[in-house]
């Protein structure tokens, strides 16, 4: 693949239908509610103790509501709410830590990756951050390898003068800033006002402190955005020069996300303008030297994401694209999701339910999904397409003991329109996403999703 991305608005419009983002397969809509933690206990009992660990901690609190946001959050300025939540979080961590079996060397498998998300993790005070990370280091063995990945999401408006320095001292080496848009009119319309000067300041400070990789999140399709206005934002972001960029599509779903009701639908850019915004963004970032990883993600060629994709080791999970696909993912906190062996396990989504489970000496499990043999095959296909843009039939045959050409015949037939439009190449060796098809790889994945036809497509955002 070249670094340029093929752009055909008419073709994209034709394929721009709703579908999953495939941070898991089966996707979260397939998870089933349970009334006990028995399956989570079973997942830990069956876990391969040699597999390294990835930790995700969900801190749900935000001081301000961003109107576009669909995350699981609690908006409050009462910082005293953090302390009791952290007590419950530690209780959950202790319980899950006790279920982990040691590896052959007698030690727990190392934590190769950790991510704090939310909400706004820096809602926690500096002392609370120190206390939480100190506790985690008492419970787990953290890898000291150069490629260990310890990251945190940061709202630039909520940083105290000491926070970035503290995070670096605690071992965080990757950071992600929520920016979304730099135009004042857009910021005011979504209730997230932060100046360009502020963004530059926190970026410069993170660089000086030696964070290995700095990400910026942007959103296209917000109220009052135009091709011209977002072009100005992109030029500024290119000048600021983050290592990674996530450029997300805003899905206006006020019936599902209450804060979005404060956004006037008439202020949103029309579909043609929104598509033009994305097209310019992709073209301009490619010109500026960013590698298009896929699914709205860009990285500099020397960033670990781009390197992992080039070497065939890129993976995808609930944290998006990742370089640590060999890990079992342990989720802690309200609404967090674990992926352990053949199991997906989601915590209680409401805080009171999360607390009630722990008060009753149970893990705060809400929903589960046990991956079937068929799911494993299709997950491999979808992951390979999303991460590496191809699947090899012989490799599938060897890994799963099947004749993949026959096994996937009906799914391959569903790719016929994409093949006719030169978006995919289908041969006796495998399936390959072409230059023309890179932006529509999500559509190719849908062909292999046996669950998708059972659901209304309105449950998912559009592919572009």
UniProtKB/TrEMBL annotation:
<feature type="binding site">
    <location>
        <position position="337"/>
    </location>
    <ligand>
        <name>S-adenosyl-L-methionine 1</name>
    </ligand>
</feature>
<dbReference type="InterPro" id="IPR006638">
    <property type="entry name" value="Elp3/MiaA/NifB-like_rSAM"/>
</dbReference>
<dbReference type="Pfam" id="PF04055">
    <property type="entry name" value="Radical_SAM"/>
</dbReference>
<keyword id="KW-0949">S-adenosyl-L-methionine</keyword>
<dbReference type="GO" id="GO:0051989">
    <property type="term" value="F:coproporphyrinogen dehydrogenase activity"/>
</dbReference>
<feature type="binding site">
    <location>
        <position position="192"/>
    </location>
    <ligand>
        <name>S-adenosyl-L-methionine 2</name>
    </ligand>
</feature>
<keyword id="KW-0408">Iron</keyword>
<dbReference type="Pfam" id="PF06969">
    <property type="entry name" value="HemN_C"/>
</dbReference>
<feature type="domain" description="Radical SAM core">
    <location>
        <begin position="47"/>
        <end position="291"/>
    </location>
</feature>
<keyword id="KW-0560">Oxidoreductase</keyword>
<feature type="binding site">
    <location>
        <position position="217"/>
    </location>
    <ligand>
        <name>S-adenosyl-L-methionine 2</name>
    </ligand>
</feature>
<dbReference type="GO" id="GO:0046872">
    <property type="term" value="F:metal ion binding"/>
</dbReference>
<dbReference type="GO" id="GO:0051539">
    <property type="term" value="F:4 iron, 4 sulfur cluster binding"/>
</dbReference>
<dbReference type="InterPro" id="IPR004558">
    <property type="entry name" value="Coprogen_oxidase_HemN"/>
</dbReference>
<feature type="binding site">
    <location>
        <begin position="68"/>
        <end position="70"/>
    </location>
    <ligand>
        <name>S-adenosyl-L-methionine 2</name>
    </ligand>
</feature>
<dbReference type="InterPro" id="IPR013785">
    <property type="entry name" value="Aldolase_TIM"/>
</dbReference>
<keyword id="KW-0479">Metal-binding</keyword>
<dbReference type="GO" id="GO:0005737">
    <property type="term" value="C:cytoplasm"/>
</dbReference>
<protein>
    <recommendedName>
        <fullName>Coproporphyrinogen-III oxidase</fullName>
        <ecNumber>1.3.98.3</ecNumber>
    </recommendedName>
</protein>
<feature type="binding site">
    <location>
        <position position="56"/>
    </location>
    <ligand>
        <name>S-adenosyl-L-methionine 1</name>
    </ligand>
</feature>
<feature type="binding site">
    <location>
        <position position="180"/>
    </location>
    <ligand>
        <name>S-adenosyl-L-methionine 2</name>
    </ligand>
</feature>
<feature type="binding site">
    <location>
        <position position="118"/>
    </location>
    <ligand>
        <name>S-adenosyl-L-methionine 1</name>
    </ligand>
</feature>
<dbReference type="InterPro" id="IPR058240">
    <property type="entry name" value="rSAM_sf"/>
</dbReference>
<dbReference type="GO" id="GO:0004109">
    <property type="term" value="F:coproporphyrinogen oxidase activity"/>
</dbReference>
<feature type="binding site">
    <location>
        <position position="66"/>
    </location>
    <ligand>
        <name>[4Fe-4S] cluster</name>
    </ligand>
</feature>
<keyword id="KW-0411">Iron-sulfur</keyword>
<dbReference type="GO" id="GO:0006782">
    <property type="term" value="P:protoporphyrinogen IX biosynthetic process"/>
</dbReference>
<keyword id="KW-0004">4Fe-4S</keyword>
<feature type="binding site">
    <location>
        <position position="69"/>
    </location>
    <ligand>
        <name>[4Fe-4S] cluster</name>
    </ligand>
</feature>
<comment type="subunit">
    <text>Monomer.</text>
</comment>
<keyword id="KW-0627">Porphyrin biosynthesis</keyword>
<keyword id="KW-0963">Cytoplasm</keyword>
<feature type="binding site">
    <location>
        <position position="62"/>
    </location>
    <ligand>
        <name>[4Fe-4S] cluster</name>
    </ligand>
</feature>
<dbReference type="InterPro" id="IPR034505">
    <property type="entry name" value="Coproporphyrinogen-III_oxidase"/>
</dbReference>
<comment type="similarity">
    <text>Belongs to the anaerobic coproporphyrinogen-III oxidase family.</text>
</comment>
<dbReference type="InterPro" id="IPR007197">
    <property type="entry name" value="rSAM"/>
</dbReference>
<feature type="binding site">
    <location>
        <begin position="119"/>
        <end position="120"/>
    </location>
    <ligand>
        <name>S-adenosyl-L-methionine 2</name>
    </ligand>
</feature>
<feature type="binding site">
    <location>
        <position position="251"/>
    </location>
    <ligand>
        <name>S-adenosyl-L-methionine 2</name>
    </ligand>
</feature>
<comment type="pathway">
    <text>Porphyrin-containing compound metabolism; protoporphyrin-IX biosynthesis; protoporphyrinogen-IX from coproporphyrinogen-III (AdoMet route): step 1/1.</text>
</comment>
<feature type="binding site">
    <location>
        <position position="153"/>
    </location>
    <ligand>
        <name>S-adenosyl-L-methionine 1</name>
    </ligand>
</feature>
<dbReference type="InterPro" id="IPR010723">
    <property type="entry name" value="HemN_C"/>
</dbReference>
């Amino acid at each position: 693949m070249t670094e340029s991305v093929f752009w055909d608005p008419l073709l994209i419009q034709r394929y721009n239908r709703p579908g999953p983002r495939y941070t898991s397969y089966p996707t979260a809509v397939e998870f089933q509610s349970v009334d006990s933690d028995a399956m989570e206990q079973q997942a830990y009992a069956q876990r391969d103790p040699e597999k390294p660990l990835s930790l995700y901690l969900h801190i749900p609190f935000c001081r301000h509501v961003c109107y576009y946001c669909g995350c699981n959050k609690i908006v409050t300025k009462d910082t005293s709410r953090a302390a009791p939540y952290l007590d419950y979080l530690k209780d959950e961590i202790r319980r899950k830590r006790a279920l982990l079996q040691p590896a052959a060397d007698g030690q727990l498998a190392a934590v190769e990756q950790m991510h704090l998300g939310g909400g706004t993790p820096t809602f926690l005070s500096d002392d609370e951050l120190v206390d939480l990370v100190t506790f985690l280091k008492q419970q787990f063995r953290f890898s000291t390898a150069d490629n260990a990945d310890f990251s945190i999401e940061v709202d630039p408006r909520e940083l105290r003068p000491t926070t970035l320095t503290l995070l670096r001292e605690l071992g965080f080496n990757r950071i992600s800033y929520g920016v979304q848009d730099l135009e004042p009119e857009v910021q005011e319309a979504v209730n997230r006002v932060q100046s360009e000067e502020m963004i530059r300041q926190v970026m410069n400070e993170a660089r000086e402190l030696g964070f290995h990789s700095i990400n910026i999140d942007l959103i296209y399709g917000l109220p009052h955005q135009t091709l011209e206005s977002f072009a100005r934002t992109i030029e500024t972001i290119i000048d600021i020069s983050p290592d990674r960029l996530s450029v997300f599509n805003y899905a206006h779903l006020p019936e599902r996300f209450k804060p979005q009701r404060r956004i006037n639908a008439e202020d949103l850019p029309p579909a043609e303008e929104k598509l033009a915004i994305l097209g310019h963004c992709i073209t301009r970032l490619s010109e500026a030297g960013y590698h298009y990883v896929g699914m709205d993600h860009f990285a500099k060629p020397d960033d670990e994401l781009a390197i992992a994709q080039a070497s065939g080791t890129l993976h995808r999970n609930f944290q998006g694209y990742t370089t640590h696909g060999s890990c079992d993912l342990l989720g802690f906190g309200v609404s967090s999701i674990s992926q352990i062996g053949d199991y997906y396990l989601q915590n209680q989504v409401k805080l009171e339910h999360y607390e009630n489970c722990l008060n009753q000496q149970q893990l705060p499990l809400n929903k589960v999904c046990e991956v079937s043999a068929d799911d494993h095959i299709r997950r491999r296909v979808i992951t390979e397409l999303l991460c590496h843009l191809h699947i090899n039939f012989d490799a599938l045959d060897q890994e799963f003991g099947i004749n993949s050409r026959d096994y996937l015949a009906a799914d391959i037939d569903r790719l016929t329109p994409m093949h006719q439009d030169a978006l995919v190449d289908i041969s006796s060796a495998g399936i390959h996403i072409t230059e023309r098809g890179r932006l529509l790889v999500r559509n190719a994945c849908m062909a292999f999703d046996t669950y998708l036809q059972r659901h209304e497509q309105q449950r998912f955002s559009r592919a572009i």
